[in-house]
From TrEMBL:
Keywords: Kinase, Transferase. Transmembrane segments: none annotated. It comes from Cyclonatronum proteinivorum. This is Polyphosphate glucokinase. Pfam families: ROK (PF00480). Gene3D superfamilies: 3.30.420.40. It comes from the Bacteria. GO terms for molecular function: kinase activity. CDD domains: ASKHA_NBD_ROK_PPGK.
Amino acid sequence: MQILGIDIGSSAIKGCVADCKTGVLTGGHFRIPTPADTSPHKLLAKVYKLVSHFKWQGPVGFCLPEPVRNGVVVRSLHFSPQWADVNAAALFEEMTDCPVAVINDADAAGLAEVQFGCARNVPGIVILLTVGTGIGSAVFVNGQLLPNTELGFIPMEEGLTAAELASVKTKHDEGLKRKKWAKRLEDVLQKYEEIFHPDLFVISGSLSHKAGKTFQYIDIRTPLKPAHFLNNAGILGAALHAGNSIPLPETHS
């Protein structure tokens, strides 16, 4: 089954058609910058432009960097505060005139990696982290998702959160050398080890493209892998979530 996946990120909005039976992204990707004004009205205009590019008629999966429950944004942590308590699924469905499902972006990336990527068939606790503008998280126990964990907000040293201490944005803002930044990320991973004792860490987001250059400086007990789908994991996971959530039309023999 082919489903359009849309990843609404803090820096860009990306889309591609996904084959949910094989985990393959088909056709071309399309990407537009996320507007500085992320209020629902402004963001919907950009999303409409992206969806229109595909001339799509069928199920659409969306992911965004906010906790989402049953299609509703529980609270707005990264976008405009106006998104809090908004039924994003209803808005996107009205805009696209297509059946829609919405999920947190890190949870979406985790679904892609657990179903088709480097965390496939891994027992126990798997933690996927999207390390980019912030730090998003997806926690799986024996393949089952514990949604909306937001581990990037766990307190670290000097009153900073994990994301404030070790995101890619922090690295750039503070001009940190890779080795020093990697040690900060190591501190975050060790904190998660103390809490969860995971069996695998998967790193997605912008860090996944050059993971080896950073991983060489990180010393932790838990196996650490870059996401198989790199920064496209959210697109595939959004489509997979839609495939699992949207009822198929009835067929009559």
